[in-house]
Amino acid sequence: MSLWLFFRRWAAQNFHALSGRNLLLLVIGYTAISYALLAAVGESALIQSPTDFLYYLVVSASTVGYGDMSPTTVAGKWVVMLFVIPGGLGLFAIAVGRVASVFIDYWKQGLLGRRKVSVENHILVLGWNEQRTLHLIKMLQHEEKGHRAIVLCVRPDIENPLPGEIEFVRTLSFTDSLAMAKAGVDSASCIVIDNSEDDVTLSAALFCANQNPNAHILAYFNDESLSGLLKHHCPNVECIPSVAVEMLAKAAIDPGSSELHHELLSTHKGMTQYAVQYPATSAPSTIAPLFNGFKQQHEAILIAIDTGKGVELNPPLDREVPPGAKLFYIADERVKQINWSKCVDNT
Q1: CA 66/CA 330 separation, integer angstroms
Q2: pLDDT, tens digit, for every residue of 214-228?
């Protein structure tokens, strides 16, 4: 067996096992030997300064070959042909492959949900219900475009369903501290919990409320009894009950009700329900001027108020609106800027 064939087989067997430390040692050794050989054959122009030497070595090893620097002696040309270019080309290919492998591995880790997300003040969605979850994320993206990032955390063995659009983390349990830390549970501003199993939703909500008591936590339940249990232990958690049966009954009595409810909830179609807080710095007002102001200025309809004692639908026009109250309205798009003084002046 020739020495060259032996070297090729050895390189093929040890390429993937080549550590970063060994690769660095090879580069240093290649650089030192190249310098010594070029010095020995009298190629002083190529090694007259560290910058010139390294520049020539990189240009030759990568086969760019600008031609502004080249060997002038016969021995120097043989050194470059037999060692500088072949050895440098091999190391250059290994280094590029190693860097590409690192980036590909980093991308795969994110796609498989094994990488820690680097976002804050985000919306964390816990649970996977296939198309329903995708629809939920699309609605959140429409509302939060340019604002909060969205992180999806799931238990099933799936890949990121929306790579490049959302962050993705996979865990075996929503009460796993290490995995939930990767999803940024302690830095999320909003946590949406939606699972097919209510017991999983309950345990996840309790865990999240303990890890991040300042987050706005929403939990969807099929069984309202568990919703009451969660509210008893975590009063600040907003529980969303299933209303499918109620919508069926309402549509049976008042045909078209289901389409109305769907439009009010959808951010993609027609009029939608939104909420806004009456500024804490504003003077107390009543519903009447605000109702007229919303309609005249924004083509929006004021439908409810919450002063901290629960939502009051269709409040009377003389109902007082204290600073800090939450107002609910219907509009084609969310009203970004409201001139409250102008609204209050409406009669």
Answers
A1: 67
A2: 999 999 888 777 777
